[in-house]
Design goal:
alpha/beta, five-stranded parallel β-sheet, four-stranded antiparallel β-sheet, 12 strands
């Protein structure tokens, strides 16, 4: 059976475009215009992945509210947030992200469908016990990166990073002790409209997640005006 993708977007033309593009990739798509209709739809059947606009009508945080409801029903459900405001990254990172991601609007339909396919592959790897999905891991001291499932552990404790955060961390630890420029970290995100402040926000959130399992964590060093360095 095809994977079922839920799209929650209040702008009719964008909603129709998303639904059309995702359907053409072979997925079953259900689309909703507001929080109430989305939650009613999820009462009937949960999707395999949800694409959520954050602002729906007059509700500024409707996407977050939908996500919290989904978490109570399916904690590992992949979610893509769509946002027009970079400062919403802080709110997104305040949630348990797992394999989730955020994408700035406006967004290429081709890129959106590629991200959906990528997150579904990651979810398959994470949930599978099949030997065919055995993943590649990389160990750097106390850090372990599972490069297929996008899983991170520090001192044998799992840390849930978003896809973007994982890519930045992987770039940072590729050469421990060497400074990585802002430009290199921007390229690792594969996203448009990324600024130094965006990178700083991501790094701050990555640090917080490591500190939540290790209060003495200090492996990510700032190189003022240049970038960051992994020095565990």
């Amino acid at each position: 059976m095809p994977k079922r993708i839920a799209v929650v977007e209040d702008e009719p033309d964008q909603r129709a475009n998303y639904k059309d593009a995702i359907s053409k990739r072979g997925y079953e798509v259900v689309a909703f215009a507001d929080r109430q209709s989305a939650l009613a739809g999820f009462d009937r059947s949960l999707p395999d992945l949800a694409v959520l606009d954050i602002i729906l009508g007059d509700e500024m945080d409707a996407g977050f509210e939908i996500c919290r409801e989904l978490l109570t029903r399916s904690p590992d459900l992949p979610v893509i947030f769509l946002t027009e405001r970079i400062d919403e990254i802080d709110k997104i990172s305040g949630l348990r992200l797992g394999a989730w991601d955020y994408l700035p609007k406006p967004i290429s339909l081709d890129y959106l469908t590629e991200r959906i396919a990528s997150l579904l592959r990651i979810e398959q790897v994470r949930s599978s016990t099949d030997e065919r999905f055995r993943t590649r891991t990389m160990d750097i001291g106390e850090l372990r990166l599972d490069q297929d499932a996008l899983l991170v552990s520090w001192k044998d404790q799992r840390i849930d990073l978003s896809g973007t955060e994982f890519k930045m961390l992987a770039k940072l630890v590729r050469q421990p002790g060497h400074a990585v420029t802002y430009e290199s970290l921007m390229e690792s995100t594969n996203q448009s409209f990324v600024t130094n402040n965006t990178i700083n926000t991501h790094i701050r959130n990555i640090r917080k997640k490591f500190e939540s399992v290790d209060s003495d964590f200090s492996a990510i060093k700032s190189e003022y005006g240049f970038g960051y360095r992994w020095n565990a």
